[in-house]
Amino acid sequence: MKKVLSIAGSDCSGGAGIQADLKTFSAHGVFGMSVIVSVVAENTSRVMDIQDITPDMIESQIDAVFEDIEVDAVKIGMLSTQFCMEAVARKLEQYKPCNVVIDPVMYAKNGCPLMDPDSIDTLIKVVLPYADLLTPNIPEAEKISNIKIRNTEDMKIAAKLIYDMGCKNVLVKGGHAIGDALDILYDGKEFYYFKTQRINTKNTHGTGCTFSSAIASNLAHGMPMSIAVEQAKKYITTAIEHSLNIGKGNGPTHHFYDLYKNGLNIKESKGDL
Ligand SMILES: Nc1ncnc2c1ncn2[C@@H]1O[C@H](COP(=O)(O)OP(=O)(O)O)[C@@H](O)[C@H]1O
Ligand SMILES: Cc1ncc(COP(=O)(O)O)c(N)n1
């Protein structure tokens, strides 16, 4: 069985962070593991409190996994401060895992900040170079590339600028754009386009977490990057189509193993199952 590690924050309401990652791993038939970087008291509407785990404890958790278990892919999510980033980067340098997918989480869907804005330089200089794939959404791509993204051409310019900062592939996600949900992958040579119709729902809590974990799972299964993204796009689209009206804010997406195994072809009604 392939083994995939998530290094991320804990979302007690279950829709994003480590919890979304582990659900996605199970749906993809990989063995999921988790290193908790921050404990976030959040729900579908707001972030109430954040407690960062100490850098020593982050490093110990990563040691505990790597000294014992071969890791086929790593997904990295919320890294709230420079100190968390440096701890994770030290361990990436030490263990040199393959298939590292980094989602540079900055805000929750409800707009609450999850990363200290002063840490952006550390994110770029210390963490980003370890990414086999970096998966910024549009606001994150704007912050990292330092350009304004207004259209597809701007997404491509940002992808190139971010690629030049040292990651091996960049996927600029268009969930925050208007119109079709278009994501653009750049591998330093070519652009690949992944497009679906926009689904009319507010229940998109955890979409970025789920998407990056699906990609990491597919890479662990041995898929080449563009195929891993293509398949993960199908997974996240179906998970959004069947997203759940849980909570008062942005509800979570739906992870359903049979949905994936059976070619994403399910008969159940949409909404709460
Ligand atoms: N309403 C939607 N309909 C269809 N796809 C969506 C929708 N919202 C987000 N997506 C897709 O979900 C994935 C996650 O993107 P995004 O929401 O931009 O990430 P993040 O959670 O990091 O903000 C992308 O593939 C994006 O295109
Ligand atoms: C612990 C944690 N990590 C990440 C996100 C962002 O989730 P997303 O961008 O996928 O909606 C979140 N809300 N909470």
TrEMBL record:
It comes from the Bacteria. Signal peptide: none annotated. GO terms for biological process: thiamine biosynthetic process. It catalyses: 4-amino-5-hydroxymethyl-2-methylpyrimidine + ATP = 4-amino-2-methyl-5-(phosphooxymethyl)pyrimidine + ADP + H(+); 4-amino-2-methyl-5-(phosphooxymethyl)pyrimidine + ATP = 4-amino-2-methyl-5-(diphosphooxymethyl)pyrimidine + ADP. InterPro entries: HMP/HMP-P_kinase_dom, PM/HMP-P_kinase-1, Ribokinase-like. The lineage of its organism: Bacteria, Bacillati, Bacillota, Tissierellia, Tissierellales. Belongs to the ThiD family. GO terms for cellular component: cytosol. Keywords: ATP-binding, Kinase, Nucleotide-binding, Thiamine biosynthesis, Transferase. GO terms for molecular function: ATP binding; hydroxymethylpyrimidine kinase activity; phosphomethylpyrimidine kinase activity. Its EC number is 2.7.1.49, 2.7.4.7. This is Hydroxymethylpyrimidine/phosphomethylpyrimidine kinase. It comes from Tissierella pigra. Pathway: Cofactor biosynthesis; thiamine diphosphate biosynthesis; 4-amino-2-methyl-5-diphosphomethylpyrimidine from 5-amino-1-(5-phospho-D-ribosyl)imidazole: step 2/3; Cofactor biosynthesis; thiamine diphosphate biosynthesis; 4-amino-2-methyl-5-diphosphomethylpyrimidine from 5-amino-1-(5-phospho-D-ribosyl)imidazole: step 3/3. It holds the Pfam family Phos_pyr_kin.
